[in-house]
C-alpha cells in the first residue's frame, strides 16, 4: 500500500488527516505518521468529522499543534484555536501557514482558557510543546519542571466571539484544567445556538498531584454537572467509535472504567 504520509519539501510534509490531505511542518514526524496511520485519537476525529459543518463555529480549547483545528477548518468551519504553550503555538501557526485557505478561517488565541482573567502558570511534563502542559502540574514542586505564565481568556470572552445563534462545537482538552474550567462554562454552554462539546477528562493528572480518590471523584462530578440534561456519548479514543450507551458516571470515569473522552449534545440541538 502506498504511504499516505509523504514528505513533500523539507520542512513541510503532506499528511492524510481523517481522509483529507493537508500540509504540515515536519517538526513532529512521529506524531504525523500516527495521524496518517489512523492511530491518533480516531474517536475524536470521527466525532468532529460527523458533526462539524461549514456553518459551524469550532472552538478548540487546547489546540496544541492544530490537528483538530486543521480538520475542522478543512470541513469548512470557522475556527478559534486557543493554545497557551509557546512551543505548540509556533508549530500551530506554522501548520496553519502551510494551509492558507484553512488559516483564513482560523483565529489563533495565545492564552490559557480559565475561569478568571488572572494570568495562569503552566508546566510541561517533559518539555514545552509535548501536548501535556498543565496548570495542575505547575502546582507541583518537582525540581527541574519547566514553568511559564500566560495571560488568560475566560468563557465569557470567548462566547462574545461567537455569533449567538450559530452552531458551536467545542473541543476541550486542557490536561486537567477542565476540572476548574467546566463549572464556569455557562457563557458558552447556555448560549442560544446548537451546541456540542467534545471533552477530555484527565483524572490521572489529578492523581499525579496527590489528590485522594474521593477528591478525584468529586471534582469529576463537578466537571460533569454542567452537562446535566444533555445527551452524553462515550467516545472510545482508540477505536474511533462510541461506547455502550451508558450515561457518564463520575466514579467510573475517575477510575478508568468509562472512557475519559465524551461528546455532550444539548438536548435542543437538532440533527446535523
From TrEMBL:
InterPro entries, alphabetized: FkbM_mtfrase, SAM-dependent_MTase, SAM-dependent_MTases_sf
GO biological process terms on file: methylation
Lineage: superkingdom: Bacteria
Region (Disordered), start-end ranges: 233-272
Keyword Translocase: no
UniProt cross-references to Pfam families, sorted A to Z: Methyltransf_21 (PF05050)
GO molecular function: methyltransferase activity
Occurrences of domain Methyltransferase FkbM (ranges): 72-205
Protein's name according to its UniProt entry: FkbM family methyltransferase
Source organism: Camelimonas lactis
Species lineage: Bacteria, Pseudomonadati, Pseudomonadota, Alphaproteobacteria, Hyphomicrobiales
Amino acid at each position: 500500500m502506498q504511504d499516505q504520509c509523504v514528505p513533500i519539501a523539507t520542512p513541510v510534509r503532506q499528511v492524510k488527516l481523517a481522509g483529507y490531505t493537508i500540509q504540515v511542518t515536519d517538526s513532529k514526524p512521529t506524531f504525523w505518521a500516527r495521524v496518517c496511520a489512523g492511530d491518533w485519537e480516531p474517536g475524536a476525529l470521527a466525532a468532529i468529522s460527523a458533526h462539524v459543518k461549514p456553518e459551524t463555529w469550532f472552538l478548540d480549547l487546547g489546540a496544541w499543534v492544530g490537528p483538530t483545528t486543521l480538520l475542522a477548518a478543512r470541513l469548512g468551519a470557522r475556527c478559534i484555536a486557543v493554545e497557551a504553550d509557546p512551543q505548540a503555538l509556533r508549530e500551530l501557526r506554522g501548520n496553519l501557514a502551510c494551509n492558507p485557505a484553512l488559516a483564513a478561517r482560523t483565529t489563533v488565541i495565545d492564552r490559557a482558557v480559565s475561569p478568571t482573567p488572572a494570568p495562569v502558570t503552566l508546566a510541561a511534563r517533559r518539555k514545552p510543546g509535548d501536548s501535556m502542559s498543565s496548570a495542575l502540574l505547575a502546582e507541583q514542586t518537582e525540581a527541574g519542571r519547566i514553568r511559564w505564565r500566560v495571560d488568560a481568556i475566560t468563557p465569557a470572552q470567548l462566547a462574545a466571539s461567537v455569533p449567538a445563534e450559530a452552531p458551536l462545537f467545542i473541543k476541550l482538552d486542557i490536561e486537567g484544567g477542565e476540572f476548574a474550567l467546566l463549572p464556569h462554562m455557562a457563557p458558552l454552554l447556555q448560549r442560544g445556538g446548537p451546541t456540542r462539546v467534545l471533552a477530555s477528562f484527565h483524572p490521572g493528572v489529578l492523581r499525579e498531584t496527590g489528590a485522594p480518590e474521593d477528591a478525584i471523584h468529586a471534582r469529576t462530578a463537578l466537571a460533569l454537572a454542567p452537562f446535566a440534561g444533555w445527551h452524553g456519548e462515550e467516545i472510545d479514543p482508540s477505536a474511533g467509535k462510541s461506547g455502550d450507551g451508558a450515561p457518564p458516571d463520575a466514579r467510573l470515569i475517575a477510575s478508568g472504567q468509562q472512557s475519559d473522552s465524551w461528546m455532550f449534545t444539548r438536548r435542543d440541538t437538532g440533527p446535523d
